[in-house]
């Protein structure tokens, strides 16, 4: 009963999140896909090819039990977590443009690539992931992701004032529903941790770190977008994964196990985020300084200030005191 309520609530949480994202977006943000096609192509290759291969290699190396192995494979072929635009935003943004476009591309490709992966794995791999049709995948994604996102974009395009009015209450509803869903998730997923073996925990950690680093590398030389692609590669779409499991394993209540795996992946993502933050601090350029010399009775004091240097004054000289010897 609780799993059915949680599944219903998760659908509405995702709908509210996508509607809020659409209401705060601009249709012109989608043009970034055309401006930087190489970035999005590399990101899709990581999310749809490299991550599933990493999952297969991890399962084979660690010899996971059947249920965790099936869940890990299914999550790896269901990318495009709805939280990507919100989870990858900067402090001054309502959402991440690159995260929004990655979510949109992954959702549009899912009806083609998720069934293709399942058909391939059914032939060449021992894990039973079942078969699902493109229409079933589209039926799981369109009402919860594509439809509210398109609705929000249309309202923003043709009624921007209404979008400004609706965006905040819709976002507050999402936050409130997320808190309730999170509490229910811990209630359901918490006891499952007792049955998770150490190998499964190690596999989840390896999957998250490996996927995030591959995403980070895919956005090389693009500054802040590396963190966005890394997070997008590490997070799967639990709504789509639950639909795949319900179709391929009828009668199996996978919500608790899925939520426990999502919690594990979220915890495993923390070291990557900390590493990215430390690396960004190291890569930040120092502000240019100008040097002014103030004479006193016994010595000259050299002061450095992070401002534009006047004409003829040297830049980038560290702050120091220069002592002038007495005469």
Structure description:
- The structure is a single chain.
- This protein has two domains: 2-283, Na+/H+ antiporter like fold (Up-down Bundle), CATH 1.20.1530; 287-327, no CATH class.
- It is 68% helix and 4% strand.
- The longest helix has 30 residues, at 160-189.
- It is globular, with a radius of gyration of 25 Å.
- The protein has a two-stranded antiparallel ribbon with strand order 1-2.
- α7 (134-158) packs antiparallel against α8 (160-189).
- The chain is mainly alpha-helical and 327 residues long.
- The relative contact order is 0.15.
- The termini are far apart.
C-alpha termini separation: 91 Å
What's the shape? globular
Specify the helix fraction band: 55-70%
Largest sheet: 2 strands, antiparallel
Residue windows where pLDDT falls under 50 for at least 5 positions: 289-294, 300-305, 309-323
Residue share in β-strands? under 5%
Q: What integer value in Å does the Rg equal?
A: 25 Å
CATH architecture of the largest domain: Up-down Bundle
Number of helices: 12
Q: Give the C-level CATH assignment of the largest domain.
A: Mainly Alpha
Question: How many separate domains?
Answer: 2
User: What is the CATH topology descriptor of the largest domain?
Assistant: Na+/H+ antiporter like fold
Number of DSSP E strands: 2
Structural class comes to mainly alpha
């Amino acid at each position: 009963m609780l799993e059915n309520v949680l599944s219903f609530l998760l659908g509405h949480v995702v709908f509210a999140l996508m509607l809020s994202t659409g209401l705060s977006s601009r249709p012109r943000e989608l043009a970034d896909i055309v401006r930087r096609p190489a970035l999005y192509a590399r990101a899709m290759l990581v999310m749809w090819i490299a991550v599933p291969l990493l999952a297969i290699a991890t399962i084979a190396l660690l010899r996971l039990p059947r249920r965790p192995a099936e869940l890990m494979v299914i999550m790896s072929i269901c990318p495009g977590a709805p939280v990507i635009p919100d989870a990858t935003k900067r402090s001054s943004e309502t959402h991440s443009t690159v995260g929004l476009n990655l979510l949109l591309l992954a959702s549009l490709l899912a009806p083609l690539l998720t069934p293709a992966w399942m058909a391939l794995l059914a032939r060449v791999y021992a894990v039973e992931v079942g078969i699902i049709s493109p229409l079933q995948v589209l039926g799981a994604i369109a009402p919860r992701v594509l439809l509210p996102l398109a609705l929000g974009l249309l309202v923003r395009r043709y009624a921007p004032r209404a979008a400004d009015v609706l965006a905040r209450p819709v976002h507050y509803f999402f936050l409130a529903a997320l808190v309730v869903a999170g509490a229910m998730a811990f209630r359901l997923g918490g006891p499952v941790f007792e049955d998770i073996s150490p190998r499964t925990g190690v596999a989840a950690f390896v999957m998250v770190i490996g996927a995030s680093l591959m995403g980070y590398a895919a956005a090389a030389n693009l500054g802040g977008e590396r963190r966005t692609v890394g997070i997008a590669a590490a997070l799967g779409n639990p709504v789509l994964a639950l639909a795949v499991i319900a179709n391929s394993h009828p009668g199996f209540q996978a919500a608790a196990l899925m939520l426990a795996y999502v919690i594990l992946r979220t915890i495993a993502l923390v070291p990557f985020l900390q590493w990215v933050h430390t690396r960004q601090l190291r890569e930040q350029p120092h502000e240019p300084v100008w040097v002014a010399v103030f004479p006193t009775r016994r010595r000259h004091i050299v002061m450095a200030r992070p401002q534009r240097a006047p004409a003829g004054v040297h830049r980038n000289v560290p702050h120091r005191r220069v002592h002038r010897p007495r005469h």
